[in-house]
TrEMBL record, chains A, B:
Protein name: Uncharacterized protein
Domain of life: Eukaryota
Amino acid sequence: MYVQNIAGDQILRRRRPLRSDQEMLFSRGFSRISRTSLNRSRWLFSFQSKREQLLPSAHLQSPLDSTNTVTAGGCREPYCWGGSSFHAIGRQIHHQSSSVVEDGLDPFLLVENELSILANRLRSMVVAEVPKLASAAEYFFKMGVEGKRFRPTVLLLMATALNVHIPGPPSEKVIDALSEELRKRQQRIAEITEMIHVASLLHDDVLDDADTRRGIGSLNFVMGNKLAVLAGDFLLSRACVALASLKNTEVVSLLATVVEHLVTGETMQMTTTSEQRCSMEYYLQKTYYKTASLISNSCKAIALLAGQTTEVSMLAYEYGKNLGLAFQLIDDVLDFTGTSMSLGKGSLTDIRHGIITAPILYAIEEFPQLRAVVDRGLDNPADVDLILDYLGKSQGIQRTQELAAKHANLASAAIDSLPESDDEDVRRSRRALVDLTHRVITRTK
Amino acid sequence: MYVQNIAGDQILRRRRPLRSDQEMLFSRGFSRISRTSLNRSRWLFSFQSKREQLLPSAHLQSPLDSTNTVTAGGCREPYCWGGSSFHAIGRQIHHQSSSVVEDGLDPFLLVENELSILANRLRSMVVAEVPKLASAAEYFFKMGVEGKRFRPTVLLLMATALNVHIPGPPSEKVIDALSEELRKRQQRIAEITEMIHVASLLHDDVLDDADTRRGIGSLNFVMGNKLAVLAGDFLLSRACVALASLKNTEVVSLLATVVEHLVTGETMQMTTTSEQRCSMEYYLQKTYYKTASLISNSCKAIALLAGQTTEVSMLAYEYGKNLGLAFQLIDDVLDFTGTSMSLGKGSLTDIRHGIITAPILYAIEEFPQLRAVVDRGLDNPADVDLILDYLGKSQGIQRTQELAAKHANLASAAIDSLPESDDEDVRRSRRALVDLTHRVITRTK
């Protein structure tokens, strides 16, 4: 099932939260409440072992492998929670935020220098022999169009958060050399992840006939579809060569599977039946493949390179998965609520392309008559307006934000479940990772 | 340099062969001359160590990394040979053919059963979760399987040709188990190679003009292109997962580099300056990337999995490279001489798309005034007709066939340079590989 069978869900399965709770949760100003350190959310899961709650049931677990399916459109039990327990989540995120405020640290600033090195390396890694291919491949790695650098930030923070002292080596020098080598290998994962991400963007833009990306002309628009396809292939092949150089076939396999997930997610979005388009389960599965698989599996790769246990590797995976899902859910909200400028690609993009996301799925639950409008295909702008009217009347936006907050909390709880460490760098990186879960759900662009 | 610095070239660097020699070489009926076994072409290279001659200078050596460049268009010394030495090549191939006739073996029949197993495995390897993606991946696969099955045949024959008795294990049973395991891993290489090949075909087929694509407006047509991109990505990711499962990072790196070469070759073809379009060096480099890199590097992968020495691995690579180049040169000839039916994609495809291949490059050498016609872009059918007139008057077709024959001989010589074996299976597979070099240059479709 998508809604994982963890104790927290039992608390969370209520009706919608009060508006005041929601406002508190999503407001950007937070009062300074003293930090509860790494224990801050433990009360929520106190009656069950956290690791038991958080460990997924299988390798590369899909968020949907369950029998307790959740379908919007009035056919099944709606997926919802709220009220007082949501208030609790609000408080919890409140605490996380204040801890970061105390630190005075920005997660992006923590790894700023390393990100610059990484950006330079990326530019050198995508140099191609043929000038046209080189300029196509470099296109999104140029200064100023690198995007938010969200993924490399997460991965570098995760690398530090999982730092363990390697026992046994004879001297400090050996420890330093080993640590440095490991860090370099983990940086490679961050670079490879960016290459896979950009390759998928290039191919997606061809598929969508997109004309802009990151505020500039999309590559297919500027250089043609064929070159965009080739540049994407080129990045994938370079990523694969870089992966092979890490000489860890489990990691190669993990990230190759991510490429397959990206393709599967894109195909799922392109080829839906009416039933699938209105299914929350299908939507979440697709979202995992399209967005969460890359970050979750690369987090896991960071842990595997560090020689972490299966348990810790899966916590890293869980963090990435839930952060990725939260990120996409908020993206889907912003597609309705943001402005064209803040979204960078124009508001209402999904709905105008007939893509049904969580806010509409929740709206359909409240107003089942919308299903017929969706089934007509949304080619008619009047139908899009009708959908938007109903969305405004519904709790769709709010409930999507709540779902995002739930995943943000699960991500945060995964970090809390890591083996304790008294290393201040490790603790600071963990706090930054938790802070990111908050930023993801409160962002406005 | 492209023309490798081997003794054979010194003999071969003459003017054009007599027409009677050429007819002898390319006729399909061969008299039965007694086979000279694996020594049949040694006289040609007798004054220099064969291995020294054939070993390329570097890993993944490009056919062009030389200073002795060869440019068509009248600027440089033309690249040609012929006369009596070509007669010798004719005789040499004559011998190869008769050896196979004596065996009564068809290279494809030798691995027929294994090819069927491989085809079934391939179909199961490309099964996808999403029905549309599954049918796209499978569909193009079925087409590939019904094709020549040239690459898997070469690779399975190469696997047997490089068989060595593993010394040391305690019992026959252990030897059998190890051999069986190795064979399975080598079969995986053949499957992966086919997946990469089909993926590149799918992406090559994507239309490059976005406006034309949108202009057609047919949903099926657009879906076709989208699915071509996605199915190609899917096959690449499955190939990468399969590669990772072999747990040999050198092999992963080798085949990832092939994908990069395929992309580079395609981009070289798409983005040429006038100078590059009329350069034989550029043409051959592009041909290596687009056609020869896949088969040469997968031959090398077969050798690496078998634990062969660097020297033997490079001979396998040399065989694949020269066979691939010969194959493509004949393809370029058939684009002019074949009928639409025998080519399977309509004659004159390249020239009508403004792609200049070896026959025209040789024609330009003889008639430099053609260069201006080529520079006009070949959009005008009258210009295409003019080019064809000159091609008919020139030795372009003949010299391309000669170049193909030279590469076929180099491929054959690489097989002859393998360490001797008295295993009849090994010897038969080597003869079949040599026979393939002949079939490649005498084929009419």
